[in-house]
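Handout, section B. The chain below has 160 residues.
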Amino acid sequence: MILFFLALRAMITGISTLTTSPHTTMAISSVIGIIISLTAGITIHSKDLGFWVSPLTWGSPLYWVNQPLQNAELATLSTVSCSRNPVTMQDLKDIIVLKVTCGVSNGTQALEFYGNVNKQYDGFIPVFVVIGFWLLFSILNFVGFFAMRDDIKPQKKKYM
């Protein structure tokens, strides 16, 4: 996860060397960050995304970091309890109170819900993708630094 944050930092630094305005840097970084977060399958389920989004998921470092984290977290769960599920009344006189079930009873069903059952990315593939993302924007940072250094001229101070 730390490597993911280093990759995001390299992305913002790389974009900032190519732009002259901090507002432009934040606008471009925000658009790329929103694309990365939406295609990871956390905020929007991966089955709800269109087919045209699938190439963006393969380039998203958050998608690759999310898969092993979900597998490590959910695969070993034997039971899932939902403490905030609503309560319903079953009897005509509203005497019997029942709690609505979760819909997911164990970790394997939770992984099926997220679509991660057959995906075994526990190896080095996620690490290589995140390092590749970091390397891409680090090279962009290096090239941008040398390409833009002549464009930035010191401003003269105005005295009254």
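Note. Residues 74 and 107 are 5 Å apart (CA to CA). Compare this with the example in section A.
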